[in-house]
Design brief:
alpha+beta, two-stranded antiparallel sheet, 18 helices, extended
Protein backbone atom coordinates (compact mmCIF):
# COMPACT_ATOMS: atom_id res chain seq x y z
CA UNK A 1 0.00 0.00 0.00
CA UNK A 2 2.80 2.43 0.86
CA UNK A 3 4.34 1.72 -2.51
CA UNK A 4 1.10 2.59 -4.31
CA UNK A 5 0.71 5.84 -2.32
CA UNK A 6 4.27 6.90 -3.23
CA UNK A 7 3.65 6.09 -6.87
CA UNK A 8 0.41 8.12 -6.84
CA UNK A 9 2.16 11.10 -5.26
CA UNK A 10 4.91 11.00 -7.90
CA UNK A 11 2.27 10.95 -10.66
CA UNK A 12 0.46 13.90 -9.09
CA UNK A 13 3.76 15.78 -8.85
CA UNK A 14 4.55 15.06 -12.50
CA UNK A 15 1.13 16.28 -13.59
CA UNK A 16 1.59 19.43 -11.51
CA UNK A 17 4.98 20.09 -13.13
CA UNK A 18 3.51 19.62 -16.61
CA UNK A 19 0.60 21.90 -15.80
CA UNK A 20 2.97 24.52 -14.39
CA UNK A 21 5.10 24.35 -17.54
CA UNK A 22 2.02 24.72 -19.72
CA UNK A 23 0.83 27.68 -17.68
CA UNK A 24 4.29 29.22 -17.74
CA UNK A 25 4.49 28.80 -21.53
CA UNK A 26 1.01 30.22 -21.97
CA UNK A 27 1.90 33.17 -19.75
CA UNK A 28 5.09 33.86 -21.69
CA UNK A 29 3.21 33.71 -24.98
CA UNK A 30 0.60 36.11 -23.60
CA UNK A 31 3.29 38.50 -22.36
CA UNK A 32 4.93 38.47 -25.79
CA UNK A 33 1.61 39.12 -27.56
CA UNK A 34 1.25 42.27 -25.44
CA UNK A 35 4.62 43.51 -26.68
CA UNK A 36 6.30 42.92 -23.29
CA UNK A 37 9.41 40.95 -22.36
CA UNK A 38 9.25 39.84 -18.70
CA UNK A 39 6.89 38.94 -15.88
CA UNK A 40 7.86 42.04 -13.92
CA UNK A 41 7.16 44.27 -16.93
CA UNK A 42 3.84 42.45 -17.33
CA UNK A 43 2.84 42.99 -13.71
CA UNK A 44 3.77 46.68 -13.95
CA UNK A 45 1.71 46.96 -17.12
CA UNK A 46 -1.30 45.33 -15.44
CA UNK A 47 -1.03 47.56 -12.37
CA UNK A 48 -0.96 50.82 -14.35
CA UNK A 49 -4.01 49.74 -16.38
CA UNK A 50 -6.17 48.44 -13.55
CA UNK A 51 -5.72 44.71 -14.14
CA UNK A 52 -4.81 42.10 -11.54
CA UNK A 53 -1.06 41.58 -11.05
CA UNK A 54 -1.57 37.84 -10.60
CA UNK A 55 0.07 35.48 -13.03
CA UNK A 56 -2.77 32.98 -13.27
CA UNK A 57 -5.36 34.55 -15.59
CA UNK A 58 -8.44 33.16 -17.23
CA UNK A 59 -8.79 33.19 -20.98
CA UNK A 60 -11.36 35.98 -20.75
CA UNK A 61 -8.96 38.13 -18.64
CA UNK A 62 -6.21 37.59 -21.21
CA UNK A 63 -8.54 38.59 -24.04
CA UNK A 64 -9.44 41.84 -22.28
CA UNK A 65 -5.75 42.66 -21.75
CA UNK A 66 -4.95 41.87 -25.37
CA UNK A 67 -7.78 44.09 -26.68
CA UNK A 68 -6.56 47.03 -24.63
CA UNK A 69 -2.95 46.46 -25.76
CA UNK A 70 -3.97 46.53 -29.43
CA UNK A 71 -5.82 49.81 -28.95
CA UNK A 72 -2.79 51.39 -27.28
CA UNK A 73 -0.41 50.02 -29.94
CA UNK A 74 -2.58 51.46 -32.72
CA UNK A 75 -2.68 54.84 -31.03
CA UNK A 76 1.10 54.74 -30.61
CA UNK A 77 1.69 53.91 -34.29
CA UNK A 78 -0.70 56.66 -35.39
CA UNK A 79 1.00 59.18 -33.12
CA UNK A 80 4.40 58.16 -34.49
CA UNK A 81 3.23 58.54 -38.10
CA UNK A 82 1.74 61.93 -37.31
CA UNK A 83 4.99 62.97 -35.76
CA UNK A 84 6.94 61.80 -38.83
CA UNK A 85 4.75 63.70 -41.29
CA UNK A 86 4.50 66.82 -39.12
CA UNK A 87 8.22 66.91 -38.52
CA UNK A 88 9.78 65.24 -41.58
CA UNK A 89 13.12 66.94 -40.92
CA UNK A 90 13.54 64.90 -37.75
CA UNK A 91 12.56 61.70 -39.58
CA UNK A 92 15.01 62.47 -42.40
CA UNK A 93 17.74 62.86 -39.79
CA UNK A 94 16.80 59.50 -38.28
CA UNK A 95 16.86 57.89 -41.72
CA UNK A 96 20.29 59.34 -42.36
CA UNK A 97 21.47 58.02 -38.97
CA UNK A 98 19.82 54.64 -39.73
CA UNK A 99 17.78 55.05 -36.53
CA UNK A 100 14.28 54.35 -37.91
CA UNK A 101 13.32 50.65 -37.82
CA UNK A 102 12.37 49.09 -41.12
CA UNK A 103 8.72 49.49 -42.04
CA UNK A 104 7.91 52.17 -39.47
CA UNK A 105 7.41 55.26 -41.65
CA UNK A 106 4.41 57.50 -41.97
CA UNK A 107 4.52 58.68 -45.60
CA UNK A 108 5.40 57.13 -48.99
CA UNK A 109 8.06 59.70 -49.81
CA UNK A 110 9.93 58.76 -46.61
CA UNK A 111 10.28 55.18 -47.88
CA UNK A 112 11.71 56.60 -51.11
CA UNK A 113 14.17 58.77 -49.17
CA UNK A 114 15.27 55.73 -47.19
CA UNK A 115 15.95 53.84 -50.43
CA UNK A 116 18.01 56.77 -51.75
CA UNK A 117 20.15 56.81 -48.61
CA UNK A 118 20.61 53.06 -49.03
CA UNK A 119 21.68 53.52 -52.67
CA UNK A 120 24.45 55.88 -51.50
CA UNK A 121 25.82 53.63 -48.74
CA UNK A 122 29.08 53.16 -50.64
CA UNK A 123 29.47 56.91 -51.21
CA UNK A 124 29.37 58.66 -47.78
CA UNK A 125 30.14 62.20 -49.10
CA UNK A 126 27.24 62.00 -51.58
CA UNK A 127 25.03 60.54 -48.87
CA UNK A 128 25.84 63.50 -46.62
CA UNK A 129 25.22 65.92 -49.50
CA UNK A 130 21.80 64.34 -50.08
CA UNK A 131 21.01 64.76 -46.39
CA UNK A 132 21.90 68.47 -46.54
CA UNK A 133 19.82 68.96 -49.70
CA UNK A 134 16.81 67.16 -48.19
CA UNK A 135 16.91 69.34 -45.09
CA UNK A 136 17.08 72.48 -47.25
CA UNK A 137 14.13 71.28 -49.35
CA UNK A 138 12.11 70.27 -46.28
CA UNK A 139 12.52 73.77 -44.86
CA UNK A 140 11.73 75.71 -48.01
CA UNK A 141 10.69 73.60 -50.99
CA UNK A 142 8.04 71.26 -52.37
CA UNK A 143 10.08 68.55 -54.03
CA UNK A 144 9.07 65.43 -52.08
CA UNK A 145 6.14 64.46 -54.30
CA UNK A 146 6.18 61.10 -56.10
CA UNK A 147 4.24 62.25 -59.19
CA UNK A 148 5.98 62.36 -62.56
CA UNK A 149 8.48 65.23 -62.61
CA UNK A 150 8.66 65.24 -66.43
CA UNK A 151 5.17 64.89 -67.97
CA UNK A 152 6.48 63.41 -71.24
CA UNK A 153 7.92 60.39 -69.42
CA UNK A 154 5.97 57.58 -67.70
CA UNK A 155 5.55 57.59 -63.93
CA UNK A 156 8.29 55.62 -62.19
CA UNK A 157 10.66 56.13 -59.21
CA UNK A 158 13.32 57.60 -61.52
CA UNK A 159 10.95 60.26 -62.87
CA UNK A 160 10.66 62.15 -59.58
CA UNK A 161 12.31 65.20 -58.10
CA UNK A 162 13.65 63.01 -55.29
CA UNK A 163 15.64 61.10 -57.93
CA UNK A 164 16.89 64.47 -59.19
CA UNK A 165 17.99 65.45 -55.67
CA UNK A 166 20.07 62.30 -55.42
CA UNK A 167 21.77 62.98 -58.76
CA UNK A 168 22.51 66.54 -57.65
CA UNK A 169 24.05 65.12 -54.47
CA UNK A 170 26.39 62.91 -56.51
CA UNK A 171 27.88 66.10 -58.01
CA UNK A 172 28.61 67.66 -54.59
CA UNK A 173 32.25 68.26 -55.55
CA UNK A 174 30.99 70.78 -58.13
CA UNK A 175 28.78 72.73 -55.70
CA UNK A 176 29.35 76.48 -55.80
CA UNK A 177 26.92 77.24 -52.95
CA UNK A 178 25.75 75.41 -49.82
CA UNK A 179 22.34 73.69 -49.90
CA UNK A 180 21.38 75.40 -46.63
CA UNK A 181 21.56 78.84 -48.32
CA UNK A 182 18.89 78.01 -50.88
CA UNK A 183 15.55 79.82 -50.88
CA UNK A 184 12.93 79.09 -53.58
CA UNK A 185 11.58 81.95 -55.67
CA UNK A 186 8.54 80.04 -56.93
CA UNK A 187 5.77 77.79 -55.61
CA UNK A 188 5.97 75.57 -58.72
CA UNK A 189 7.84 72.32 -58.01
CA UNK A 190 9.51 72.11 -61.42
CA UNK A 191 10.77 75.68 -61.18
CA UNK A 192 11.91 75.09 -57.60
CA UNK A 193 14.00 72.16 -58.75
CA UNK A 194 15.60 74.22 -61.52
CA UNK A 195 16.38 77.02 -59.06
CA UNK A 196 17.96 74.55 -56.64
CA UNK A 197 20.10 72.99 -59.39
CA UNK A 198 21.37 76.44 -60.45
CA UNK A 199 21.95 77.47 -56.83
CA UNK A 200 24.16 74.44 -56.27
CA UNK A 201 25.97 74.15 -59.60
CA UNK A 202 25.79 77.38 -61.64
CA UNK A 203 27.87 80.50 -61.08
CA UNK A 204 25.77 82.04 -63.84
CA UNK A 205 22.05 81.18 -63.72
CA UNK A 206 21.38 81.45 -67.47
CA UNK A 207 21.31 77.70 -68.03
CA UNK A 208 18.31 76.90 -70.31
CA UNK A 209 15.39 75.30 -68.49
CA UNK A 210 15.19 72.23 -70.74
CA UNK A 211 18.53 71.04 -69.32
CA UNK A 212 16.91 70.52 -65.89
CA UNK A 213 15.85 67.11 -67.28
CA UNK A 214 19.53 66.08 -67.13
CA UNK A 215 19.07 65.40 -63.40
CA UNK A 216 15.84 63.42 -63.60
CA UNK A 217 15.97 59.87 -64.88
CA UNK A 218 18.32 56.90 -64.83
CA UNK A 219 21.99 57.28 -63.95
CA UNK A 220 23.18 56.41 -67.44
CA UNK A 221 25.79 57.81 -69.81
CA UNK A 222 23.33 60.11 -71.56
CA UNK A 223 22.19 61.80 -68.35
CA UNK A 224 25.76 62.13 -67.12
CA UNK A 225 26.73 63.80 -70.42
CA UNK A 226 23.79 66.21 -70.15
CA UNK A 227 24.75 67.02 -66.57
CA UNK A 228 28.20 68.00 -67.79
CA UNK A 229 26.58 70.39 -70.27
CA UNK A 230 24.51 71.91 -67.44
CA UNK A 231 27.62 72.49 -65.31
CA UNK A 232 29.56 73.76 -68.36
CA UNK A 233 26.94 76.41 -69.13
CA UNK A 234 26.72 77.25 -65.43
CA UNK A 235 30.34 78.43 -65.56
CA UNK A 236 29.37 80.97 -68.24
CA UNK A 237 31.05 78.99 -71.03
CA UNK A 238 29.76 78.81 -74.61
CA UNK A 239 27.52 75.86 -75.41
CA UNK A 240 29.51 75.24 -78.62
CA UNK A 241 32.54 74.28 -76.52
CA UNK A 242 30.70 71.69 -74.43
CA UNK A 243 32.06 68.15 -74.74
CA UNK A 244 30.41 65.26 -76.56
CA UNK A 245 27.69 67.25 -78.32
CA UNK A 246 26.65 64.89 -81.16
CA UNK A 247 26.11 67.63 -83.76
CA UNK A 248 28.41 70.44 -84.85
CA UNK A 249 26.69 73.60 -83.63
CA UNK A 250 26.92 76.78 -85.64
CA UNK A 251 26.36 80.14 -83.95
CA UNK A 252 22.80 80.15 -85.24
CA UNK A 253 22.18 76.62 -83.94
CA UNK A 254 23.64 77.53 -80.56
CA UNK A 255 21.30 80.51 -80.36
CA UNK A 256 18.28 78.32 -81.14
CA UNK A 257 19.40 75.75 -78.57
CA UNK A 258 19.47 78.33 -75.79
CA UNK A 259 15.93 79.40 -76.79
CA UNK A 260 14.50 75.89 -76.48
CA UNK A 261 11.10 75.72 -74.71
CA UNK A 262 11.19 74.46 -71.13
CA UNK A 263 9.62 71.00 -71.46
CA UNK A 264 11.52 69.86 -74.54
CA UNK A 265 13.45 66.58 -74.18
CA UNK A 266 17.17 67.16 -74.54
CA UNK A 267 17.75 65.07 -77.73
CA UNK A 268 14.85 66.84 -79.43
CA UNK A 269 16.21 70.21 -78.30
CA UNK A 270 19.44 69.45 -80.16
CA UNK A 271 17.64 68.28 -83.29
CA UNK A 272 15.35 71.32 -83.19
CA UNK A 273 18.32 73.69 -82.93
CA UNK A 274 20.05 71.92 -85.81
CA UNK A 275 17.04 72.33 -88.12
CA UNK A 276 15.97 75.84 -87.17
CA UNK A 277 19.58 77.03 -87.15
CA UNK A 278 19.79 76.14 -90.85
CA UNK A 279 16.67 78.07 -91.76
CA UNK A 280 14.25 75.19 -91.16
CA UNK A 281 10.63 75.41 -90.02
CA UNK A 282 8.52 74.07 -87.17
CA UNK A 283 6.60 71.50 -89.23
CA UNK A 284 9.87 69.92 -90.39
CA UNK A 285 11.13 69.83 -86.80
CA UNK A 286 7.90 68.18 -85.78
CA UNK A 287 8.00 65.58 -88.55
CA UNK A 288 11.67 64.64 -88.11
CA UNK A 289 11.40 64.36 -84.33
CA UNK A 290 8.68 61.72 -84.74
CA UNK A 291 11.25 59.50 -86.43
CA UNK A 292 14.30 57.85 -84.91
CA UNK A 293 16.13 61.16 -85.42
CA UNK A 294 14.20 62.55 -82.46
CA UNK A 295 16.16 60.47 -79.96
CA UNK A 296 19.18 59.07 -81.77
CA UNK A 297 22.32 60.58 -83.27
CA UNK A 298 23.78 57.36 -84.64
CA UNK A 299 25.22 57.75 -88.16
CA UNK A 300 24.84 61.50 -87.75
CA UNK A 301 27.15 62.30 -90.68
CA UNK A 302 24.65 60.71 -93.07
CA UNK A 303 21.49 61.97 -91.38
CA UNK A 304 22.75 65.55 -91.41
CA UNK A 305 22.80 65.30 -95.23
CA UNK A 306 19.23 64.00 -95.14
CA UNK A 307 18.18 67.03 -93.11
CA UNK A 308 19.89 69.28 -95.67
CA UNK A 309 17.97 67.43 -98.41
CA UNK A 310 14.65 68.17 -96.69
CA UNK A 311 15.64 71.81 -96.26
CA UNK A 312 16.06 72.04 -100.05
CA UNK A 313 12.45 70.91 -100.54
CA UNK A 314 10.28 73.21 -98.41
CA UNK A 315 7.10 72.31 -100.32
CA UNK A 316 7.36 68.63 -99.40
CA UNK A 317 4.34 67.48 -97.40
CA UNK A 318 5.65 66.72 -93.86
CA UNK A 319 3.62 63.50 -93.94
CA UNK A 320 6.28 62.06 -96.29
CA UNK A 321 9.19 62.74 -93.95
CA UNK A 322 8.68 59.72 -91.68
CA UNK A 323 8.31 57.16 -94.50
CA UNK A 324 11.39 58.55 -96.26
CA UNK A 325 13.49 58.25 -93.10
CA UNK A 326 12.26 54.67 -92.55
CA UNK A 327 13.14 53.76 -96.13
CA UNK A 328 16.63 55.27 -95.96
CA UNK A 329 17.34 53.52 -92.63
CA UNK A 330 16.33 50.14 -94.00
CA UNK A 331 18.14 50.52 -97.31
CA UNK A 332 21.43 51.86 -95.93
CA UNK A 333 21.75 50.36 -92.42
CA UNK A 334 19.22 47.67 -91.45
CA UNK A 335 18.82 45.27 -94.32
CA UNK A 336 15.86 42.93 -94.41
CA UNK A 337 14.54 39.88 -92.59
CA UNK A 338 13.35 37.13 -94.94
CA UNK A 339 11.03 34.36 -93.76
CA UNK A 340 12.42 31.05 -95.00
CA UNK A 341 10.61 27.75 -95.66
CA UNK A 342 10.05 26.17 -92.25
CA UNK A 343 9.64 29.50 -90.53
CA UNK A 344 13.28 30.51 -89.97
CA UNK A 345 14.35 34.12 -90.42
CA UNK A 346 17.29 35.00 -92.66
CA UNK A 347 18.96 38.38 -92.32
CA UNK A 348 19.97 40.05 -95.56
CA UNK A 349 22.55 42.85 -95.65
CA UNK A 350 21.44 46.39 -96.49
CA UNK A 351 20.43 46.78 -100.11
CA UNK A 352 22.25 50.13 -100.55
CA UNK A 353 25.06 50.49 -97.96
CA UNK A 354 26.65 53.25 -100.10
CA UNK A 355 23.43 55.22 -100.47
CA UNK A 356 23.90 59.00 -100.38
CA UNK A 357 21.67 62.03 -100.82
CA UNK A 358 23.90 63.62 -103.46
CA UNK A 359 21.97 64.60 -106.60
CA UNK A 360 18.90 62.70 -105.40
CA UNK A 361 15.50 63.60 -106.90
CA UNK A 362 12.57 64.03 -104.52
CA UNK A 363 10.10 62.60 -107.06
CA UNK A 364 12.18 59.49 -107.66
CA UNK A 365 12.72 59.02 -103.93
CA UNK A 366 8.98 59.15 -103.24
CA UNK A 367 8.35 56.52 -105.96
CA UNK A 368 11.02 54.30 -104.39
CA UNK A 369 9.35 54.64 -100.98
CA UNK A 370 5.96 53.66 -102.44
CA UNK A 371 7.47 50.64 -104.22
CA UNK A 372 9.21 49.61 -101.01
CA UNK A 373 5.94 49.69 -99.05
CA UNK A 374 4.31 47.41 -101.61
CA UNK A 375 7.27 45.01 -101.54
CA UNK A 376 7.09 44.85 -97.76
CA UNK A 377 3.43 43.92 -97.79
CA UNK A 378 3.91 41.27 -100.47
CA UNK A 379 6.93 39.73 -98.76
CA UNK A 380 5.48 39.66 -95.27
CA UNK A 381 2.16 38.11 -96.16
CA UNK A 382 3.01 35.98 -99.17
CA UNK A 383 6.28 34.41 -98.10
CA UNK A 384 5.64 30.98 -96.72
CA UNK A 385 6.92 27.48 -96.50
CA UNK A 386 5.92 25.17 -99.28
CA UNK A 387 3.01 22.93 -98.46
CA UNK A 388 4.98 19.87 -99.42
CA UNK A 389 8.77 19.88 -99.32
CA UNK A 390 8.76 16.82 -101.57
CA UNK A 391 7.64 18.83 -104.57
CA UNK A 392 10.90 20.50 -105.40
CA UNK A 393 10.77 23.31 -107.87
CA UNK A 394 7.01 23.76 -107.51
CA UNK A 395 6.23 27.16 -106.11
CA UNK A 396 2.65 27.54 -107.11
CA UNK A 397 0.80 30.20 -105.11
CA UNK A 398 -2.03 27.71 -104.64
CA UNK A 399 0.22 25.48 -102.62
CA UNK A 400 1.46 28.26 -100.33
CA UNK A 401 0.21 28.98 -96.84
CA UNK A 402 0.54 32.23 -94.94
CA UNK A 403 2.93 31.99 -91.99
CA UNK A 404 1.95 34.22 -89.10
CA UNK A 405 4.59 35.42 -86.65
CA UNK A 406 2.94 36.26 -83.34
CA UNK A 407 4.18 39.31 -81.47
CA UNK A 408 5.02 39.66 -77.78
CA UNK A 409 1.91 40.19 -75.67
CA UNK A 410 1.61 43.08 -73.26
CA UNK A 411 -0.47 44.07 -70.24
CA UNK A 412 -2.53 46.79 -71.93
CA UNK A 413 -6.06 45.84 -72.84
CA UNK A 414 -8.15 46.51 -75.92
CA UNK A 415 -10.69 49.30 -75.73
CA UNK A 416 -14.32 49.60 -76.85
CA UNK A 417 -16.75 52.47 -76.49
CA UNK A 418 -20.07 53.38 -78.09
CA UNK A 419 -20.51 56.99 -79.18
CA UNK A 420 -23.96 58.42 -79.94
CA UNK A 421 -24.30 61.63 -81.92
CA UNK A 422 -27.97 62.36 -82.59
CA UNK A 423 -29.41 59.22 -84.15
CA UNK A 424 -26.01 57.94 -85.25
CA UNK A 425 -24.36 55.16 -83.23
CA UNK A 426 -20.63 54.54 -83.63
CA UNK A 427 -18.72 51.62 -82.12
CA UNK A 428 -15.07 52.57 -81.57
CA UNK A 429 -12.48 49.84 -81.00
CA UNK A 430 -8.78 49.99 -80.24
CA UNK A 431 -7.02 46.65 -80.56
CA UNK A 432 -3.42 45.51 -80.62
CA UNK A 433 -2.12 44.17 -83.92
CA UNK A 434 -0.94 40.70 -82.95
CA UNK A 435 1.10 39.39 -85.88
CA UNK A 436 2.86 40.28 -89.12
CA UNK A 437 -0.28 39.73 -91.19
CA UNK A 438 -2.19 42.23 -89.05
CA UNK A 439 0.54 44.80 -89.69
CA UNK A 440 0.55 44.16 -93.41
CA UNK A 441 -3.23 44.44 -93.65
CA UNK A 442 -3.26 47.67 -91.66
CA UNK A 443 -0.46 49.14 -93.77
CA UNK A 444 -2.36 48.35 -96.98
CA UNK A 445 -5.63 49.80 -95.68
CA UNK A 446 -4.00 52.95 -94.31
CA UNK A 447 -1.35 53.43 -97.04
CA UNK A 448 1.58 53.80 -94.68
CA UNK A 449 4.67 51.82 -93.69
CA UNK A 450 3.63 50.38 -90.34
CA UNK A 451 4.99 47.03 -91.51
CA UNK A 452 8.48 48.36 -90.86
CA UNK A 453 7.72 47.87 -87.14
CA UNK A 454 7.45 44.07 -87.50
CA UNK A 455 10.91 43.37 -86.08
CA UNK A 456 10.42 45.70 -83.10
CA UNK A 457 7.01 44.14 -82.40
CA UNK A 458 8.50 40.65 -82.40
CA UNK A 459 11.11 41.76 -79.85
CA UNK A 460 8.51 43.49 -77.69
CA UNK A 461 10.12 46.92 -78.03
CA UNK A 462 7.02 48.35 -79.73
CA UNK A 463 3.34 47.49 -79.96
CA UNK A 464 1.03 48.68 -82.75
CA UNK A 465 -2.66 49.41 -82.22
CA UNK A 466 -5.49 50.00 -84.67
CA UNK A 467 -8.45 52.30 -83.95
CA UNK A 468 -11.52 51.50 -86.00
CA UNK A 469 -15.05 52.91 -86.21
CA UNK A 470 -18.26 51.00 -87.06
CA UNK A 471 -21.06 53.43 -87.86
CA UNK A 472 -24.64 52.21 -87.35
CA UNK A 473 -23.63 48.56 -87.36
CA UNK A 474 -21.51 48.79 -90.49
CA UNK A 475 -18.12 47.19 -91.08
CA UNK A 476 -15.17 48.46 -89.01
CA UNK A 477 -13.40 51.31 -90.76
CA UNK A 478 -9.69 51.89 -89.93
CA UNK A 479 -9.17 55.40 -88.61
CA UNK A 480 -5.84 55.54 -86.78
CA UNK A 481 -2.71 53.45 -86.37
CA UNK A 482 -0.99 53.97 -83.03
CA UNK A 483 2.59 53.02 -82.08
CA UNK A 484 3.55 52.55 -78.45
CA UNK A 485 6.99 51.99 -76.94
CA UNK A 486 7.69 49.35 -74.32
CA UNK A 487 7.64 52.11 -71.68
CA UNK A 488 3.90 52.73 -72.34
CA UNK A 489 4.57 55.95 -74.25
CA UNK A 490 2.69 56.78 -77.46
CA UNK A 491 5.28 57.59 -80.13
CA UNK A 492 3.15 57.74 -83.29
CA UNK A 493 -0.50 58.19 -84.21
CA UNK A 494 -1.19 58.34 -87.92
CA UNK A 495 -4.24 58.15 -90.13
CA UNK A 496 -4.59 57.21 -93.77
CA UNK A 497 -1.67 58.34 -95.94
CA UNK A 498 0.17 59.31 -92.73
CA UNK A 499 -2.43 61.97 -91.90
CA UNK A 500 -1.93 63.52 -88.50
CA UNK A 501 -4.93 63.50 -86.11
CA UNK A 502 -4.45 67.15 -85.22
CA UNK A 503 -2.82 68.26 -88.47
CA UNK A 504 -4.05 70.89 -90.88
CA UNK A 505 -2.69 69.41 -94.12
CA UNK A 506 -5.69 67.25 -95.06
CA UNK A 507 -6.35 68.28 -98.61
CA UNK A 508 -5.85 64.68 -99.80
CA UNK A 509 -8.56 63.04 -97.62
CA UNK A 510 -12.33 63.18 -97.93
CA UNK A 511 -14.49 65.13 -95.55
CA UNK A 512 -16.16 62.09 -93.95
CA UNK A 513 -12.81 60.54 -93.04
CA UNK A 514 -11.45 63.85 -91.76
CA UNK A 515 -14.42 63.97 -89.36
CA UNK A 516 -13.72 60.41 -88.18
CA UNK A 517 -10.06 61.30 -87.69
CA UNK A 518 -10.92 64.20 -85.41
CA UNK A 519 -13.38 62.13 -83.38
CA UNK A 520 -10.96 59.20 -83.30
CA UNK A 521 -8.28 61.40 -81.75
CA UNK A 522 -10.67 62.15 -78.85
CA UNK A 523 -11.43 58.42 -78.42
CA UNK A 524 -7.70 57.69 -78.35
CA UNK A 525 -7.23 60.26 -75.60
CA UNK A 526 -9.85 58.45 -73.50
CA UNK A 527 -7.99 55.17 -73.96
CA UNK A 528 -4.68 56.81 -73.03
CA UNK A 529 -6.24 58.17 -69.84
CA UNK A 530 -7.81 54.83 -68.90
CA UNK A 531 -4.57 52.88 -69.36
CA UNK A 532 -2.45 55.64 -67.75
CA UNK A 533 -0.29 55.97 -70.86
CA UNK A 534 1.80 59.01 -71.76
CA UNK A 535 2.76 60.75 -74.93
CA UNK A 536 6.30 60.17 -76.11
CA UNK A 537 8.94 62.76 -76.69
CA UNK A 538 6.83 65.06 -78.85
CA UNK A 539 3.11 64.91 -79.45
CA UNK A 540 2.19 64.13 -83.03
Amino acid sequence: MAHHRRKSKRADADRARVQTAILRGSLQSHIKSLGLTSQKEYQDWCRTRGFSEGLHKSDEQKRKELRLAKVHQGESILARKRSQTRNPGNTIRQLYDRAVPKGRLGADYLYRIRSLFHALEDDPPSRRALFDILLAVENSGKLFGLDAALPYRPEDPQNTFLQGLMQLARRHRDFVRAPSDWQPLSRNSRRQFGQLARHLLAEYPDVPDFLDAAWIGPEDESHQRWQEWFIHLGTGANVRTASDIPIKLTKSMAHELLQTPELTPIPIALRRAQILGQGGWDSLVHALCQTQLGNSFEHEHFWSTVITFFLRHPMLDPAHVGPIVDYLQQQKFDGAEILQPGGALAHEPPAQPNLSMKSRSIDKLLRQVDDWHEELAQAEIGRAAQADAQHEGRHSRSRRQVRFIEFVKGSIGDFEVIERVGKQRTMWRIRRLRNNADLAADGRAMHHCVLTYAKSCRKGDVSIWSLTASEDGGSPRPVLTIAMSGSRAITQARGRHNAQPWGKNRGNIEHSYASLLTRGAAIMERWIKREKLVWGEVRI
